[in-house]
Specification:
The chain is an alpha+beta fold. The protein folds into 2 domains: 55-186, Glutaredoxin (3-Layer(aba) Sandwich), CATH 3.40.30; 191-273. The chain has 9 helices and 4 strands. It has helices at residues 6-45, 55-69, 83-91, 95-104, 119-122, 163-175, 177-186, 191-226, 234-267, and strands at residues 72-78, 105-111, 135-140, 145-146. It has a 4-stranded mixed β-sheet. The chain is globular and about 60 Å long.
């Protein structure tokens, strides 16, 4: 048998080492490139809602960071399955908007799952329910008061909101931060108005229970649909729930306005403008029992 000269053997070993070394760096470069592409696609598509084991801890971190930096806390509640949630998430990373957000806000995305992870966040800020995904909470970290309640729902159809409108929305709140915070923290009302608002709060809480139950019905169907299924009567159920969610927010705004008018008339002793709040009634969902309302 022929013996391979030592010098030749050393040359083969060196060649193999160089080949393996180059292959390693080539594969590493491909892996890094793939990671970069994946990260880029996540920001572009808005798939930024990652489930947290402890939502309270995440909120605490966000508020602490906002307090430390002197910024507002921007909490976006949504889900990756939701078109509008992805819309607002990707818009917030557009160059001009991203610059403004980083300047004024500590941003946190909260994954609500299939409408199963809501209460832990919103109850902390005194809200009984969310009416849309996404729901935008802009919070003063010192008082922990939501300062965008007056126009919170403008972003519920975020995928249809232009880049300019989105930018103006967040810049307007940031520019009027002091005024909005002061209003949220120090707002006072007469005994009459407090009583009227309490009755509106009770009305909202009653229907919040109905909506939570509706979420428990539609949530599994969304999951099934998201996983490629075709759940029976999905569209019918989704439309029924959406109708209530959109209608009640308009009604609540009308009731708050009516309450202010009644209280003002009462304070001015003008009996001709006194009236009672006119609470609407809504149709029952198919799955509700007769005593659900």
């Amino acid at each position: 048998m022929r013996t391979i000269p030592k010098r030749t053997t050393n040359g083969l070993v060196t060649y193999l080492l160089v080949f393996l070394w180059c292959s390693f760096f080539s594969l590493s470069a491909v892996a890094y490139s793939n990671q970069t592409d994946n990260a880029k696609s996540i920001y572009e598509t808005g798939h930024l809602y990652i489930a947290a084991e402890d939502q309270t801890a995440e909120i605490d971190k966000s508020l602490a960071a906002a307090k430390k930096t002197g910024k507002l806390a921007l909490i976006v509640m949504g889900a990756n399955w939701c078109h509008d949630s992805r819309g607002i998430a990707s818009n917030l990373y557009l160059p001009d908007i991203k610059e403004s957000i980083e300047k004024n806000y500590e941003l946190l995305f909260v994954d609500v799952g299939y409408y199963t992870k809501i209460k832990q966040v919103i109850n902390r800020f005194g809200m009984p329910i969310i009416y849309s995904t996404p729901t935008i909470l802009i919070v003063d970290p010192e008082s922990e008061q939501i300062i965008n309640k007056h126009n919170m729902l403008l972003m519920r159809d975020a995928a249809s909101v232009s880049e300019l409108e989105t930018q103006e929305y967040f810049e307007d709140i940031a520019n009027n931060r002091e005024k909005l915070t002061k209003t949220a923290v120090t707002s006072k009302s007469s005994p009459q108005l407090r009583k009227l608002n309490q009755s509106i709060d009770d009305f909202e809480k009653l229907h919040a229970k109905r909506i939570y139950r509706a979420f428990s019905v539609i949530g599994p169907l969304i999951k099934e649909k998201n996983e490629g299924g075709d759940p029976k009567e999905f569209n019918k159920i989704w439309k029924a729930i959406s109708k209530l969610r959109y209608t009640i927010t308009d009604d609540l705004a009308r009731l708050r306005k009516q309450a202010n008018q009644i209280a003002l008339a009462s304070d001015s002793n003008n009996p001709s403008h006194r009236e009672k709040l006119k609470f609407p009634k809504y149709s029952r969902f198919d799955w509700e029992t007769n005593d659900a309302q």
